[in-house]
Design goal:
Layout: H1 4-15, H2 19-37, H3 39-60, H4 68-81, H5 84-87, H6 91-98, H7 106-116, H8 118-128, H9 134-161, H10 163-171, H11 182-201, H12 211-229, H13 232-253, H14 256-276, H15 278-295, H16 303-320, H17 331-342, H18 356-382, H19 387-403, H20 410-426
Helix pairs in contact: 2-3, 2-9, 3-8, 4-8, 6-7, 6-18, 8-20, 9-11, 9-12, 11-12, 11-13, 11-19, 13-14, 13-19, 14-15, 16-17, 16-18, 19-20
């Protein structure tokens, strides 16, 4: 199949003790790139991680009687359940899956289960992936930063080539064009800013000393671009992480005055950005106008009003079904029903509850929300490694939950779950 020299090189590489670790890093880098650009590559990258986990399990499974595949399966799942901080994510698949018992719309229910399947696949893979040195773990975050730099440059070039059309679209409430989903892209951008600043503080370089200066410039560029992109979910998540890290630093060093001065500077920077960046100024003015229309009952065709109404609809659905919800499969139909009854002027463009917690309450009830919160919070309170970056990421996640149903999309699940699991490994 391969020429003899190539085959010999591949065989030699496969026999190397650290070959699975290299394959893990390659798969993870591919996943980070594909998160922003390609659903197909995202699936491929996840299965590369699964293959790498199988490879490592095959190397590690103890010798013994019986079928090798069965021994690998029991050994690999044993590894998962010996790591409860990873096994707990299975709850986030089980909650919507079990709601199928009281869902009538099996088609939408199966879609919910399919989107949540990574909560089984990725924790299993990470429980069996090879141990890797700190440098490999940090190189993934390094790759994230430079991937976002390249993508943001492309977004900026496209903006300036089509500025009048894009500004007109933003005036009407539409986002600046980015690869795939603008909200998830902004959350990845916020993740890259925080991760890049963390790497810069720890003086990571790949080969050359000057890279640290380049990394600092990249972080500043991405921070500025987050304001230029003007996606509110990403900006709020970014500032929430910065506030957390600032308060943590002040608490550890008792330097509250420095943090207060930094907060004033940050507020001034944001105000200056609103005044000078046309995209951010347009988004701010649109938000204020949309809120005014909503307060006057005139926001039927405005995106923000639709989101606020969707949250009210989710709350009403939960009040009628407090313990188990309506079932994950029946949530769209119930949302349309409530909107038709309570908000008929919004019925033409129904949205599901734009809040992860309300989405869980409406679809799976109080029981589903409590179990999901346990799965979200257990890793945060049991993690014993490098906590600063890990917890800062969780802060961004929970902020996104307030305004989006983040883990109800494939890209949102991958963003939350992959970085949570990777930072758990990297921080130990």
């Amino acid at each position: 199949m391969f020429p003899t020299p190539v085959a010999d090189t591949l065989r030699a590489w496969v026999r190397r003790p650290d070959a699975p670790a290299d394959a893990m890093l390659f798969s993870a880098l591919l996943l980070v790139v594909s998160l922003a650009v390609s659903p197909f590559l995202l699936s491929v990258a996840m299965w590369f991680l699964v293959f790498t986990a199988f490879w490592q399990a095959a190397r590690s499974v103890p010798a013994g009687p019986g079928n090798i595949w069965w021994r690998m399966l029991t050994y690999s799942f044993g590894n998962l359940f010996r790591k409860p901080e990873q096994a707990v994510f299975l709850i986030l698949l089980a909650v919507p899956a079990l709601s199928g018992l009281w869902s009538d719309d099996n088609g939408y229910w199966l879609e919910r289960v399919r989107v949540r399947l990574p909560f089984l696949v990725l924790p299993w893979a990470f429980a069996n992936l090879p141990a890797a040195d700190e440098r490999r773990h940090r190189l993934l975050l390094y790759g994230l930063v430079w991937t976002l730099v390249i993508l943001c440059i492309g977004v900026a070039v496209n903006f300036f080539l089509h500025r009048p059309e894009i500004m007109q679209a933003m005036y009407q409430g539409r986002p600046m064009p980015v690869p795939r989903n603008h909200i998830r892209f902004s959350l990845m951008l916020a993740t890259a800013v925080v991760a890049g600043a963390w790497l810069w503080q720890r003086r990571l370089v790949w080969r050359y000393a000057w890279e640290r200066h380049a990394l600092g410039l990249a972080v500043l560029f991405l921070f500025g671009f987050a304001h230029f992109l003007a996606v509110r979910s990403g900006l709020v998540a970014l500032y929430a992480a910065i506030v957390f890290l600032g308060l943590r630093w002040a608490w550890q060093r008792r330097r509250w005055g420095t943090v207060l001065a930094a907060a004033l500077v940050a507020g001034g920077v944001f105000w200056g950005a609103v005044q000078t960046l046309p995209s951010l100024k347009q988004k701010w003015e649109y938000t204020v106008y949309d809120w005014q229309q909503y307060r006057q009952g005139k926001g039927a065709t405005y995106s923000d009003s639709e989101r606020w109404i969707s949250m009210q609809a989710g709350w009403l659905i939960w009040q009628k079904n407090p313990w188990l919800g309506v079932g994950a499969g029946d949530l769209p139909a119930e949302t349309e029903k409530v909107l038709a009854e309570q908000f008929p002027h919004y019925h033409a463009t129904p949205k599901l509850p734009h809040n992860q917690f309300l989405y869980l309450l409406a679809g799976t009830g109080l029981l589903g929300l409590v179990l999901s919160l346990f799965a979200f919070l257990y890793p945060v309170f049991t993690f014993r490694g490098e906590r600063a970056l890990f917890v800062a990421f969780q802060v961004m996640v929970f902020v996104s939950f307030l305004v989006e149903y983040t883990i109800e999309t494939a890209m949102g699940v991958a963003w939350y779950l992959f970085f949570t699991l990777w930072l758990m490994r990297a921080g130990r």
